[in-house]
Design a protein that fits this description.
Blueprint (H helix, E strand, L loop, with lengths): L1 E4 L7 E6 L5 E6 L7 E2 L7 E7 L2 E7 L13 E11 L4 E4 L15 E6 L8 E13 L15 E13 L3 E7 L27 H4 L2 H5 L23 E3 L6 E10 L4 E10 L2 E7 L3 E8 L2 E12 L4 E12 L14 E13 L4 E13 L2 H9 L21 E13 L5 E10 L16 E12 L8 E12 L5 E13 L5 E9 L2 E3 L9 E3 L2 E9 L6 E12 L4 E11 L5 E23 L8 E24 L2 E22 L7 E3 L5 E5 L5 E5 L2 E5 L4 E17 L2 E15 L7 H4 L8 E9 L6
Antiparallel strand pairs: 1-2, 1-7, 2-3, 3-4, 5-6, 7-8, 7-9, 10-11, 10-42, 11-12, 12-14, 13-16, 14-15, 15-18, 16-17, 18-19, 19-20, 20-21, 21-22, 22-23, 23-24, 24-25, 25-26, 26-27, 27-30, 28-29, 30-31, 31-32, 32-33, 33-34, 34-35, 35-36, 35-40, 37-38, 38-39, 40-41, 41-42
């Protein structure tokens, strides 16, 4: 691996490397941290290797047009050369990076004597043409939208243009992401969204500069996300994504140390096609045309590489006042934030500060939905410290973060910090937020020993704690976590940790109702990982926990990576989870007593089992021709029992149905009927049994430098029934034989540059 700090800022670096078989590796480091790397960095360069009786050698050809540097002569760059020798589990550096170090580019040596070059005013164009077919498996013969092959053709263009010597403009028109790997399967019974990793190349590359040190403000998967509108009809062809008409990024670093990151994108208006029997077609608008914008400016200063940054984001949706979508979506959303990292004593100490404000506006219905959303639940009947107003048309919130940490120490390191989010803080239009309304205090201390002893190569002890209160002063989290990690003489490692949580309040368990108590609980976690030097590598992790009400959490996962030959690799990652949750929300109904503000908040025990296995197989025919397979069989089930209602706010005591003067009966379809005096109501059968299989097979051929051919086959099959049977490991593979949807695509992209 050859790493180059071309700006000589002692902070950022680009790394190029190759294996003995000629497989290329490249990554970008956005900060002076070895783990803060961007593997999506994808410059156009070449590498060749050769083997003989003495070993192997490599030659790397890296065009200056693929590097960013300041115009000066002579050039002085930071340089490090690294070699990884798996057979000896050995890392060799030209400029030493010690095991205790948490720095990276600031430890490089100097590469001198580069003269007669200037930054390229580069121009790179990559037009593409693609064709795809979506074949549906178990289709309804009456559904007019799932017949035939559903063939589509697309053309688009990606471009990179150098602006001056330091800035690069990247643009994409009608981007295609058909080769992107599918998200893993899940069954989400919570009130909160799951945030999956970004995989689309245009948005992944350079994302660190746009995201910054706090990831609340920009979550690129909002751009092109599925439309929010809903449609009711006999049959619906609903768009799975919002079409990105175009997007552009401006990134770079000026000679003054100012880094610039800007992104703009426009998604098109979307409609869903509908069909109602016997012969009525229609269209319903489900997403407006939307404009997104992100700007982040970061200035580096001081010899240790301190930084301060200013960031702004904005979203605008084109909606008239009488548009039905105006009651679902905000019209405008803006954020403004700043973050600073002050590095003291050559980076041994870091002080981090962040402050941000958010503002959203739109129709009263859209702002009311935000107030009632799971991130805040401002309508809670016992929340006397917040203001809920269903007629308001805007909302403004704030966030503050402060922390200090000591790292790069021989033995002792520590960190303390606080994080405040006001109840009205909202970033989900272009960022991500699970829950606001919190005041967090946290701390961690660690002791490590890196000098090998008789029984270890290195070890570390950690103690951490985190406590959170809402703005009303109710304790929401009280966690204490000790841990130990040991690397043994054979390079295997073992980690053991525990978590202890006190009784706390949870303002979100009733999903808009009063606060409810959570029981005290504990967890233990053990993980074992083999040496990275082995051709067959493995890891195993098990977690076990209980709470004082009889709840259970057990999770066992592992992974095996086999590389029997130089051309192929197979990894298998199975996982089993068993959970008995004693506070699973079911529904909220009217007719409760004054102790619960006139409503019934119905909860149950749920016994959940989940089996899944992720398979990845990679075969390299030659360095520029690869075949990659990803597959995940999945099975999950849930059985509800001990159904009852919350007895009183701020408690966790339940009034079980079938006792205390109530009756509970189960109808043939699994529906539960509850009678409480003169009141009677039904609860739908929520038991579930889900099986699915998702796979992705991609042949990738870089038939000339930067130009690529993709052949793609994606599969998605799923079945779900309402049944109390608990799934087993065999059910995980039961989805293999089921018919599902298949997606086929071919894409050819041609890269050329007059440089």
């Amino acid at each position: 691996l050859v790493s180059l700090d071309t700006y000589l800022d002692r902070r950022t670096a680009s790394t190029f490397g190759t294996t003995a078989t000629g497989v290329r590796l490249d990554t970008y480091y956005a900060s002076d941290r070895p783990w803060d790397n961007d593997d999506s960095f994808d410059p156009v360069w070449q590498a060749r290797t050769s083997m003989d009786a003495q070993g192997w050698s490599a030659e790397l050809w890296i065009p200056f047009s693929q590097l960013r540097f300041t115009e000066r002569s002579p050039q002085v760059w930071g340089l490090n050369v690294q070699r990884w020798v798996p057979s000896r589990n050995e890392e060799v550096y030209w400029a030493l990076v010690a095991r205790t170090e948490e720095r990276w580019a600031s430890l490089f040596g100097d590469l001198q004597g580069i003269e007669g070059i200037a930054p390229s005013r580069r121009l790179e164009l990559m037009p593409y043409v693609a064709s795809s077919s979506h074949v549906f498996g178990d289709r309804d013969p009456d559904d007019p939208f799932t017949g035939g092959g559903n063939f589509e053709g697309r053309i688009g263009l990606d471009a990179k243009v150098g602006l001056g010597s330091n800035l690069t403009l990247e643009a994409t028109v009608n981007p295609d992401f058909g080769q992107v790997e599918a998200d893993p399967a899940e069954v989400n019974l919570s009130a909160f969204e799951t945030f999956f990793d970004e995989r689309r190349p245009f948005f992944v590359e350079g994302n660190d500069l746009l995201t910054g040190n706090v990831d609340n403000y920009f979550y690129s998967r909002r751009i092109g996300a599925p439309p929010a509108g809903r449609v009711s009809a006999d049959f619906v062809e609903f768009p799975g994504t919002s079409t990105i008409l175009g997007a552009a990024k401006l990134t770079g670093r000026l000679e003054s140390g100012l880094s610039i990151g800007m992104l703009g994108a426009v998604t098109d208006e979307e409609t869903a096609r509908t069909f109602n029997m016997p012969n009525l077609f229609g269209r319903t608008r489900v997403a407006p045309r939307t404009t997104y914008g992100v700007t982040r400016l970061q200035q580096q200063f001081g010899s240790a590489g301190s930084t301060t940054a200013l960031m702004a984001t904005g979203v605008h949706r084109e909606m008239a006042a009488d548009d039905p979508l105006a009651a679902l979506l905000t019209r405008n959303a803006f954020t403004l934030s700043s973050d600073s990292v002050f590095r003291l004593r050559d980076g041994d100490y870091e002080v981090q500060l962040n402050a941000g404000v958010t503002h959203v506006d739109g129709a009263a219905g859209a702002i009311d939905r935000l107030q009632r959303a799971s991130a805040r639940y401002l309508q809670r009947p016992d929340a006397d410290y917040v203001s809920y107003d269903p007629t308001r048309t805007s909302m403004t919130g704030m966030k503050l973060i402060a922390g200090i940490e000591r790292s790069n120490a021989e033995h002792w390191s520590w960190e303390v910090g606080t994080d405040l989010e006001s109840p009205e803080f909202e970033t989900n239009d272009l960022g991500r937020l699970t829950a606001g309304d919190g005041i967090i205090g946290q701390g961690e201390i660690e002791y490590q020993e890196t000098v090998p002893g008789r029984w270890w190569r290195q070890y570390a002890f950690t103690l951490s704690t985190q406590n959170e209160w809402n703005y009303g002063g109710d304790l929401q989290q009280a966690e204490f976590e000790p841990g130990v990690e040991i690397t043994w003489p054979n390079f295997w490692s073992t980690e053991f940790s525990g978590t202890i949580n006190r009784r706390t309040q949870d303002q979100r368990l009733t999903r808009g109702g009063p606060s409810m108590e959570k029981p005290a609980n504990w967890e233990m976690q053990l993980s074992v990982e083999s040496s990275d030097a082995s051709q067959t590598r493995g890891e195993f992790e098990v977690t076990y926990g209980r709470n004082e009400d009889g709840g259970l959490m057990f999770n066992a996962s592992g992974g095996v990576t086999m590389q029997p030959g130089s051309q192929w690799q197979l990894s298998i990652e199975p996982q089993y989870e068993r959970e008995l949750d004693t506070q699973q929300f079911v529904t909220a109904l009217a007719g409760g007593g004054p102790a619960t503000y006139g409503n019934r908040y119905v909860f149950a025990h749920i016994d959940r089992s989940t089996y899944s296995t992720q398979f990845r197989w990679n075969y390299t025919f030659k360095p520029d021709l690869t075949l990659d397979f990803y597959g995940e069989p999945f099975a999950a089930s849930g059985r509800y029992s001990h159904i009852g209602e919350l007895l009183a706010a701020r408690s966790r005591q339940m009034r079980l149905y079938g006792t205390d003067g109530t009756t509970l009966s189960t109808l043939p379809d699994g529906t539960r009927r509850v009678t409480d005096g003169a009141a009677s109501f039904t609860l739908r059968n929520s038991d579930f049994n889900v099986q699915s299989f998702r796979s992705n097979l991609v042949l990738r051929w870089e038939w000339r430098a930067g130009s690529t051919l993709y052949l793609v086959w994606q599969q998605d099959s799923e079945s779900e029934i309402t049944a109390p049977q608990r799934v087993s490991a065999s059910d995980m593979f039961g989805s293999f034989g089921r018919r599902g949807d298949s997606f086929f695509a071919v894409k050819v992209a041609y890269w050329f540059s007059p440089n």
